[in-house]
Amino acid sequence: MTVYFIGAGPGDPELLTLKAQRVIGECPVCLYAGSLVPPQVVACAPDDAKVMDTAAMTLDDTHAEIKAAHERGEDVARVHSGDPSLYGAIAEQIRRLNADGIDYQVIPGVPAYAAAAAALGQELTIPEIAQSIVLTRMSMQSTSMPEGETLENFAKTGATLAIHLAVRNMREIERVLTPYYGEDCPVVVAYRVGWPDEMFIRGTIADIRKKVRAEKITRTALILVGPALDRGRDFKDSALYDPEKPHVLRPVVGVDLVEDHNT
């Protein structure tokens, strides 16, 4: 018997990986986070499968279902939104599985920031503008942030920020980020990415709070911040396809190549 932690992606059933779809279709038990995962994502479960929405369940409740399945010798599809490695709350579940000697596997999924960037038709890492992405969140009413992992510290890098669980704290985001990114820095609030009612609100650090308030968005949103989001900004081409910079897969006659063993 195995518990499969499955990344369902942000909401679009077609963003399930082939492996995820196959495993859900084979498991006699399917537990999914219905507040973040649409029922259509688990519609591929067997007709006779036990499919449960865990939105109103506690950790004890879900673990009890898993233990019962384990005693019956039945595999469990534990379906989470996005990718389980990012705010998936699987660590505490795995701890209990290990304590009870229950096998598990993790199947990755499309994270919300990647799906949002795809829907926007943008790259989040632009040459000489932003080459890093910081995935973070704000404390609010959830678990507190570790010391040093502050929004201000991340803002000092100038990287593209993907801020989770923070749409109700737009005032604080504006206050903290303005000194580092400037009030004209582009911001995109991605609401329910991959769902039929998905919405993308574009603005700047100075005006995004007002736009979000007008749409009455209070949850299920990802905030992207950084100069890489500026669609009209000029930038230098990357070296990847530069004819003046050959590499092992595109050599130039008469140019000696030094293979980079770090890539």
Automatic annotation (TrEMBL):
InterPro entries: 4pyrrol_Mease, 4pyrrol_Methylase_sf, 4pyrrole_Mease_sub1, 4pyrrole_Mease_sub2, Cbl_synth_CobM/CibF, Siro_Cobalamin_biosynth, Uropor_MeTrfase_CS. GO terms for biological process: cobalamin biosynthetic process; methylation. Keywords: Cobalamin biosynthesis, Methyltransferase, S-adenosyl-L-methionine, Transferase. It is an enzyme of class 2 (transferase). Its EC number is 2.1.1.133. GO terms for molecular function: precorrin-4 C11-methyltransferase activity. Residues 2-208 form the Tetrapyrrole methylase domain. Pathway: Cofactor biosynthesis; adenosylcobalamin biosynthesis. Belongs to the precorrin methyltransferase family. This is Precorrin-4 C(11)-methyltransferase. The lineage of its organism: Bacteria, Pseudomonadati, Pseudomonadota, Alphaproteobacteria, Rhodobacterales.
